[in-house]
Amino acid sequence: MEEKKEKRVMEKEMMLEEEELEEEMEVEEEMEEVEEEEMEEVEEEEMEVEVVEKMEMEEEEMEVKEENEEQEQQKERALQPKKQRLVFTDLQRRTLIAIFKENKRPSKEMQVTISQQLGLELNTVSNFFMNARRRCMNRWAEEPGAAPGGPAGAAATFSKA
């Protein structure tokens, strides 16, 4: 009987050892899974860092390219001869002044016609009328007794220019 007991005890011990071994194996497997997951997370983070670093480098490269292009454009502009200041012929000046005396704000269509008749660019004619109006306003501000828009004021405005 004692042999049976010993046998049972040994069987129980063996079963316990097997269970412990199984538990240990399960724990080891779980630890391996956790380690694998951690490794995957680390790899993903490293990949993300690499992607971010690559994007930052590309941005820096783009900025350098843009700066180089800007510098090249500035060099090209510096090499181009400066546009000369336009001096109206006597006929052009007298015609523009006469039209300004009659109409301080000619329409765009009228300005196009004037530019074609005088052989000037549209923006030159537009600028003339804008500057002439500004000069008149400046004269009125400087001379409190001057009548705004009067022919004498307009003639005085252009006699010094």
From TrEMBL:
Q: Which GO terms describe its cellular component?
A: nucleus
Keyword Nucleus in the entry? The reply is yes
An example of a GO molecular function for this protein is: DNA-binding transcription factor activity, RNA polymerase II-specific
Which keywords are on file for this protein?
Answer: DNA-binding, Homeobox, Nucleus
Q: Which stretches are tagged as biased composition: Basic and acidic residues?
A: 1-15
Q: Where is the composition biased (Acidic residues)?
A: 16-71
DNA-binding feature ranges:
81-140
- What's the domain of life for this entry? Eukaryota
Entries under SMART domains matching the protein: HOX (SM00389)
Homeobox domain boundaries: 79-139
- Region feature (Disordered): 1-81, 142-161
InterPro entries in the record, alphabetically?
CUT_Homeobox, HD, Homeodomain-like_sf
SUPFAM superfamilies according to UniProt: Homeodomain-like
CDD domains in UniProt? homeodomain (cd00086)
**Location(s), subcellular:** Nucleus
Enumerate the PANTHER family for this protein: ONE CUT DOMAIN FAMILY MEMBER 3, TRANSCRIPTION FACTOR ONECUT
What is the name attached to this protein's record? Homeobox domain-containing protein
- Organism of origin is Marmota monax
The upper taxonomy is: Eukaryota, Metazoa, Chordata, Craniata, Vertebrata
